[in-house]
Description:
By secondary structure, this protein is an alpha/beta fold.
Amino acid sequence: MAQGVRIAVVVGSNRKGSINQTYARALERLAGEGMVFDYLPVGALPLYNMDLEEEAPTVLADIKARIQAADGVLFVSPEHNRSVTALMKNTLDWCSRGSGGNVWAGKRAAVCGASPGTRGADLSQMHFRQIAVVLNLEVLPQPEVYVHVKEGLFTEAGDFASERDGGFQKRFLDRFADWVVRA
Length: 183
């Protein structure tokens, strides 16, 4: 795997105790020094409104600059009503508009998600991929990563409890890092 690949991370849930925040942190520990995760403060963005573009929130410039500086973007998100979360859609919209233009264009990314539901956020990822095409965001085609969260998936420390799960997630991260550096 490439060393020190800079990854901007968008977590599509900002609730306390977020499963996907736990999942993202487990991925970060699993990646070790091979990837440097930068968690973007997307919860600070107001609900997108074109009227706000002229005087965009200051956090937007920071988020866009961090995306541009990153080698790739990792989207980690649950599913809400068989679609992307409102937070995820809001982030996609803000970062594709206004000052600085569409920072997603040509950026390599991966999407994954965790859910207590047996489908593990698969439908939200399918919808995410449809949106990504319009934004010219290049999403890693394989593997598709849908995590069914059940008791025992994570240790008390928040790592993957089984070698099987950890191994799969590590292969996903390695593939993503290699794909990003080949851009």
